Amino acid sequence: MIKPKKLEKGDTIAFIAPSGGLGGLVPHRVENARKFLESKGFKVKEFPTSRSIKGNSSATPQERVEDIHNAFKDPEVKAIICTTGGLSSNELLDLINYKLIKENPKIFCGYSDISVLHYAFLKKANLTTFYGPAAMTQFGEFPQPLEYTYNYFIKAVSETKPIGRIIPSEKWTDELLDWRYKEDLKRPRKLYPNKGFLWIKKGKVSGRIVGGCLSSILKLKGTKFNTDYADKILFIETPEGQDFTKGEPLNYVDSQVMDLRNTGVFSKIKGLIVGRGYGYTKEERKDFEKIIKKHTESYNFPVLFNVDIGHSDPMITIPLGVKVTLDSSKNLFSIDEIGVN
């Protein structure tokens, strides 16, 4: 694994939008993120896609790839944070110069559809990247990002010691305040008590962690960009549905988890971590748990549910490809290897 250099105060963070163009619709979220990171002592450099929109994406595939290349080869830039997710990262896979990425390793962070790029950078450039907060969704939060999210981001990208034990957040939210009408600037989102980890299946394992947004990583099945799941610990999480005020319909999730089984993923992995569902009612969260139970009951690996990963907030930052441990007897999920040098 190639690991990027750690992020330090005074370093420059790049904003790019390799997929969706929300920054062009609601630029105040990009501005909020810039101001917050600058208040923490970092410099921010926005690349052209970060506040643009063309059709269903931020820009043409060529323009988005140009931003990726320029951010990686810019000597000032130490970290790259994607502004948001989307649906079109898969358009870029055959256009990216992976040799350039490999020769200019940088911290690369984002989630959701950015899962596609994480997998590609891992497979084609052997680079440790970071499944974590995006500029608009987490760093653009009003009145400021949730402390839990920021603290785990800094642990992952700025410290040359392992993150260690993951402590579940005390509170969480998936409340949506409409950015288009700046409802998000009127009050903070409501937070709810977090029940913490739930072990659907018990056990103890260690292995390298891979994963991402469930619907996004499935885009790569059968392609040269898919990861090798043998002896890995897999994490999955679910996004919003086509109705962005609600979560991915559970019948879709059920089918997608079956896709993982059909492609042999569950026969290869050593453990499974499932992020807290986004946009579900209390009953739907129970149904989500039942879906995971149903699909894993015939496999002999531990399954940890309701983890602070993904589309609800707050979220941890996961260095991809590093060693982690699951141990239900100690209620333990720990990240045991550094992601930066």
> Order of SSEs, N→C?
EHHEHEHEHEHHEEEEEHEHHEHEEEE
* Count of spatially separate domains: 2
Strand content: 15-25%
**What's the CATH C level of the largest domain?**
Alpha Beta
**Major beta sheet summary:** 8 strands, mixed
Contiguous uncertain segments of 5+ residues: none
CATH-level-2 architecture of the largest domain: 3-Layer(bba) Sandwich
**Rg from Cα:** 18 Å
Total E-strand runs: 16
Shape: globular
Structure description:
With 341 residues, the chain is α/β, with parallel strands linked by helices. It has two domains: 147 residues, Rossmann fold, CATH 3.40.50.10740; 172 residues, 3-Layer(bba) Sandwich (Glucose Oxidase, domain 1), CATH 3.50.30.60. Helix content is 29%, strand content 20%. It contains eleven helices and 16 strands. The strands form three sheets. It has an eight-stranded mixed sheet. The chain has a six-stranded mixed sheet with strand order 2-1-3-4-5-14, sandwiched between helices. Strand 12, helix 11 and strand 13 form a beta-alpha-beta unit. The longest helix has 15 residues. It is globular, with a radius of gyration of 18 Å.
